[in-house]
Design goal:
mainly beta
């Protein structure tokens, strides 16, 4: 138990050290919905909507809709999923108030694996994306390490909990680097 707790504390220290550099804007806002609906014990449907802003609300950076169908290789542990994402972005030109809008379509495949430790869980996500941009095509590999920690109970069978995540991207134009890290509060509605 002491080794697990030490690992957890080291993970949080490393993650919090990188969070300072995760976003350049101090007022940006990401509104995100994640949904995972089981069809039966083996199959599930994943849904995700993200509304990202440069400021608190109203200065659109990106709107993303992602969905997919998954298959559980083992109960509550390993899942493979294939899906589609639509991404609309509005990026500022450098040193300007003018924006350039773009649309992107993505087909993706991913593998999720989860390890449960008391009182937290660690999840690894490996994703391959085929990105169809306006007049261009890219393949991108993504890895996400996340940890879930319950807030008011000893296991993750109930919410609320804190969800911490760090991601890495690898593509032909982007070197391997830490790109996103964040806190998510998950509350029962």
């Amino acid at each position: 138990m002491k080794i697990r707790m030490r690992f957890f504390i080291i993970f949080l220290i490393i993650l919090s050290n990188k969070m300072v550099f995760a976003q350049s804007s101090k007022t940006g806002n990401w509104l995100i919905y994640f949904g995972n609906q089981p069809i039966n014990k083996k199959w599930n449907v994943w849904n995700e909507v993200q509304y990202r802003n440069y400021n608190f609300v109203g200065d659109l950076q990106q709107f993303l809709i992602r969905t997919g169908v998954g298959y559980n290789l083992s109960e509550n542990n390993n899942n493979v999923l294939m899906g589609y994402a639509y991404v609309y972005s509005e990026n500022y030109f450098e040193k300007s108030d003018a924006k350039l809008s773009s649309e992107e379509h993505r087909i993706y495949q991913q593998f999720l694996t989860r390890q449960n430790f008391t009182p937290f869980a660690i999840q690894h996500r490996y994703r391959i994306e085929e990105r169809f941009l306006q007049g261009d095509f890219h393949i991108r590999f993504r890895y996400a390490l996340s940890i879930q920690v319950p807030l008011n109970h000893s296991t993750l069978t109930k919410i609320p909990y804190i969800f911490l995540q760090a991601m890495k991207y690898l593509s032909k134009t982007v070197p391997l680097y830490l790109t996103e890290t964040g806190f998510t509060w998950v509350l029962d509605m």
